[in-house]
Amino acid sequence: MVRLASAVGLLGLIAASLMIGAADLKSGSVDADLLVWVSRIPRTAAALLAGAGLALAGSVVQLAVQNRLVEPGLTGTPEAAMAGLLAITLIAPGAPLMLKMLAASLASMAGTAGFLILARHVPRQDPMLLPLVGLIYAGILGAGVTWVAWTTDLMQYLGVWQAGEFSGVLRGRYELLWLIAALAGLLYLLADRITILGLGEDRARSLGLNARQTMLAGLAIVAATVAAVVVTVGTLPFVGLVVPNIISRWRGDNLRRNLPLIAVSGGAVVLAADVVGRVIRWPYEIPAGTVFAVIGAGLFLWLLYAAPRPAGQNG
Amino acid sequence: MKAFFCALALVLPTALQAETVPVATAAGEVQAPLTPAKTVALDMAAIDTLDALDVAIIGRPDIAPPAYLSETLASVPTVGTLFEPDFEALAALAPDLIVAGGRSQAQVQPLSQIAPTLDMTIGGADLLNETTARIDAYAAIYDRTDAGTALKAELDADLAAARDAITGKGKAMIILTNGGKISAYGANSRFGWLHSALDLPEAYPGLVVENHGEAVSFEFVAEANPDWLLVIDRGAAVGQGGEAAAATLDNPLIAGTTAGKTGQIVYLDGSAMYLAGGGFHSVTGTLEQLTAAFGGAGS
Fold first, then answer.
1. Which of B181, B235, B256 lies closest to A168 in CB terms?
2. What pTM value is reported for the model?
C-alpha cells in the first residue's frame, strides 16, 4: 500500500516537473520535443539524482558516526569540495569537468576524513555535541574557502556552488550526476557492512568486519556523491539529514532494505522543492535549495520534538 | 589612527579656506571644493568620467578596471577595496576631494571626515541623465566647462547614432551570465537604460524591478524569444575565469530563439557595463558597440 502510494506520488511529481516550466509546452512558441528532451527531462533527472545521492550520503554518514543528527552538510564535506573546486579553478582554470570533479572529490574525502578524526574525540553522551562540532568544523572550512575566494575575486563563483538550484541544468550539463546512480549501486553492495558499522566500531570488529576499510569505502562514496552534486548544481542543505531520519524512524536501520526508499524519497523531496521553486514566482526561479531549506527546517524541528524517542537510545 | 588625526588637522583648514562650487550629486546639491589639487576617486564610473575630462587622481580602489582604464590607472596607488576604503592610507594621501558612490556609497559619511566627499552614485534606469549630470559636476569642480561640453556633445552624437541603428530592428533582452547560470534585466534595472534611453523594445515587458536581475532559466529566454540578446558576462567583467558567456549560451534553447538563429547575440563589454556603468567611456563604448551590431543587421 505504502509502496503503491509512494510510486504514484513520485510519478505525479515527475509528470508535474515535466509539465511545468518557464516555457509553455502547448503554446508552440518553443518546440515541445526540444523543451522536454533538452530542458525538462534533464532537470527532472538532475533533481532526482542529486536528492537521492544526498539522502544516501546522509544515511551512510549517520551510520558511520552513529549519530542521527549528522549529515554531509554538517561534516564539512561540501565546503571541502568547494575548496577543491576553488583550488583547481585557480591552478588550472580551463580544466575539464572530470578533473574538476576529481579535485572536488579528493578534497571532500580529505574534509570528511578530518571530520571523522574529530568525531573520534567527541564525547558521545550528548547527541547534539557531534553536529555542533561538525557545524563549527564546516564553518571553519567554509571561512577558509570564503577568504581564498574573496582575495582572488571569486566570490560570485563561489555563490554559484553555494546555492543549490537547477535553473542552469540542460542536456549536456548535468550528466555527471548519473555517477550517483553508479555510486548507489556500489552502496547497495556495501550496505550490510555499513549497517553493521552503525552498531559501533568495537561491535562491528567483533562481528568480523574490517571497520576501517568499510568506513573508508563509505566515505569515498559520500565524498564522490557530494562532490558531484556541488560541481553540477551546488549545495542542498538538510536533505541528507531529514530523509534518512524519517525513513529509519519508520523502518529501522537496515540500510540494504531502506536504500531504495531513501534514494527515492530524497529524489522526490528535492524534485518537489524544485517544482515549487519554479512555480512560486513563475516565470522566474527560486533556488530549490532555498525552498528545501524552509521545508527542511520545519521537518527537522518536527523530528527533534514531535516524534517519540525510544528509551535508552540516542536520537 | 594617529596619522588619521594628523592628516585631518592638516586637511581641515585648507578645506575650509578653499573656494567652493555648487554641484549636483546623488545626495542632492552640495558645495564642492573648486579645482581641488588632489582627488581620490573610489567609484569606477567616476574614475571613468574624470579620466575623460583629463583629471588625474591620486588614489583608487584595488580592483581590476575595465581595459580602457588600465593604462591610466596602472601607476595610481590603491586605497582599499571598492566596498572597504583603507582609511589610514587615504588620510596619508591627504586628498582635497574624495569622489565616492556606487559600491562605496555606504562609506560616504565616514570618508567625509577625511576630506570633502561627494556621493556620485549612478544607478537606475535614468542612467544617461545621471552621466550627463556627473560630467557637468566634474566640469564645474575642475573648471573644465569646454571639455565637459565636448564630452556631452559626443555622448549625444553616440546616442543619436545608436537610436538610429536600433529603430525597427526588433525586441531585445538583457541577460547576465554567471558561472553557467543566467539572470534577466528589465527596463527598470541597472542596465535598463539600454531599453529606456534607446527606445529598444523589451522581449519580455514588465520584468520585475530588481537591481540584481531575475534568476531565470534558459526556457524563459526561449519562450520570450528575443530578436536580440544583449549579454553581460559577469565572470569576465570581474576578471574571473570560469565558464564564458558564449559557452553558457551555447545550447539548443538559446539557439532556437530569433536572436540565436540570426546570430544577433551581442556580448557587451561586461567590465564597462558592470563595473563602470554610467562612466563616460563606459556609456559611449557601449553605444558604439550597439550601433555597430544593430547597424549591421538588415531591418
1. B181
2. 0.86
